[in-house]
């Protein structure tokens, strides 16, 4: 069993989010093939830039109203290009489980 305590919260992530976002890293990958786990609070209308993950990603909406741009609404398979965040007039809190180093792209047009 592992008990995860609150992590550091960052509001700056290299211009890869639009709007106000608070990222709390709960667990960094311990080894190759292990996931990063984070709690991410997207304030009203904030979203990520387009990105992909070589090992895939699982997104679990914990609170609020989220939005995402990708064909599969439950998870992002390896290398699938997508974005996610909060609905235009709402906040959203996501539990994000990611395998591999994120490959970042541009902001979503009109998102």
Give an account of the 3D structure.
With 111 residues, this protein is mainly beta. It is 0% helix and 44% strand. The chain has no helices and twelve strands. The chain has a six-stranded antiparallel beta sheet with strand order 1-3-4-11-7-9, with no helix packed on it. The protein is globular.
The overall average pLDDT, rounded, is 85
Helical segment count: 0
Q: Strand pairing plus helix content: what structural class? A: mainly beta
Shape: globular
Please summarize the sheet with the most strands. 6 strands, antiparallel
As a percent range, the share of helical residues equals under 10%
Over the alpha carbons, how many angstroms does the gyration radius reach? 13 Å
Described by its quaternary structure, the protein is single chain
| Order of neighbouring strands in the sheet with most strands | 1-3-4-11-7-9
List keywords for this structure.
111 residues, mainly beta, two-stranded antiparallel ribbon
Secondary-structure blueprint:
Elements: E1 9-10, E2 17-18, E3 21-27, E4 36-42, E5 47-48, E6 51-52, E7 57-64, E8 66-69, E9 75-76, E10 83-86, E11 92-98, E12 103-104
Antiparallel strand pairs: 1-3, 2-5, 3-4, 4-11, 6-12, 7-9, 7-11, 8-10
